[in-house]
Amino acid sequence: MAVFVTTFESVAVLLGIGILGFWIIRKRILPGDILGLLSPLALDIALPSLIFVKIIRDFSPAESPDWWQLPIWCFFFMACAGVLTFMATFISKKDTRREFAISLFYQNAIFFPLAIIGGMYGNESPYLVFLFLFTIFYPAFFFSTYHLFFEKRERGGLDWKKIIHPVLIVTLLAIVIRLVGLQDIIPDFVLSIFSLVGGMTIPLLMIILGGNIYMDFQQKGQLQFVEITKFVIIKNIAFPLVFLGMLLLIRPSYHIALLILLESAIPPVTAVPLVTERSGGNRAIVNQFLVASFIFSLISISIMVWLFSLFFTPA
Fold first, then answer.
1. Is the pTM of this model over 0.85?
2. Rounded to whole angstroms, how far apart are CA atoms 34 and 128?
3. Alpha carbon distance 82, 154 (integer Å)
4. Residue 94 to residues 99, 100, 145: CA-CA distances in angstroms?
5. What's the pLDDT at 161?
């Protein structure tokens, strides 16, 4: 049960910070329009800083010769998730089927696993580096494919600034530095700066998430309990159970199995409501899916990680 408790506490911390963000905007301690200004600070500065310092300090190509396989495993996971999403959407209402599908398909790939892995294995764990390598192309994948779920297209085509994201650039730069052995020439104080800035990532993002939920729920529309229940059962329960069964069949390395299990069990990515609205979809129902999945994940992720621990143990 120790695994269950540790995972529960890690997810509870995330939700607690999100509630704080909700309260801050609700009480108007900060204006709602500041959330748009804080997002680039979190995504373009804090997160890349965190990734850079973790890879420079904790990544060892010699000790992890199969590191290059991690992005391939991520695409394998997304392909399987795509098949499961296609199958699952037939039980959703026809008029919100696209919203149902996009919320199922795109998971909160970095922040939830980041907190859970840190809680289970510590902030110096090499599994954090594996997470960053696993998801290296995920932001680019998300921003180049989400429009396929809707008929409406944003003007101007693809936003290359979001596809060639600072996260991708910094991750590739840090990998190259480690591969050629130049990490020792980086002064410690520089890494300390990156470490301190990177430490803002999760708190800042969860505060933004909580604030955005408050802003969105000012226009939440009618609650669709049946659709929400369907979504939570599939996203939080069925998806991770199916992937756990697949993992038991193919038996990959522990760190790969752990990442795939976590990716399958976590709630939707927080950008889904925004891109749904931009594509002409129903933002209100997507927000309901997102919030319900987040709340239920407090229990569901803990149970799934506990089940995983019964069959997989670190090497």
1. yes
2. 30
3. 23
4. 10, 10, 21
5. 67
* Domain residue ranges in the chain: 2-311
10 Å CB burial of residue 44 (0-12, 13-18, 19+) is middle
Residue type, 250: I
Question: Cα(155)–Cα(278) distance, rounded to whole angstroms?
Answer: 10
Q: The tokens 């922040």 sit on which residue?
A: 111
Cβ–Cβ < 8 Å for 284, 227: no
- The pLDDT tens digits of the residues spanning 129-168 come to 999 999 999 988 998 888 888 876 555 556 666 677 888 9
Three-state SS annotation for the chain: CHHHHHHHHHHHHHHHHHHHHHHHHHCCCCCHHHHHHHHHHHHHHHHHHHHHHHHHHHCCCCCCCCHHHHHHHHHHHHHHHHHHHHHHHHHCCHHHHHHHHHHHHCECCCHHHHHHHHHHHCCCCHHHHHHHHHCCCHHHHHHHHHHHHCCCCCCCCCCHHHHCCHHHHHHHHHHHHHHHCCHHHCCHHHHHHHHHHHCCHHHHHHHHHHHHHHHHHHHCCCCCHHHHHHHHHHHHHHHHHHHHHHHHHHCCCHHHHHHHHHHHHCCECCCHHHHHHHCCCCHHHHHHHHHHHHHHHHHHHHHHHHHHHHHCCCC
- Which pLDDT value is given to residue 218? 67
Q: Which CATH class is domain 2-311?
A: mainly alpha
Q: Judge contact between 203 and 80, C-beta under 8 A.
A: no
Please write the tens of the pLDDT for every residue from 40-78: 888 889 999 999 999 999 998 988 889 999 999 999 999
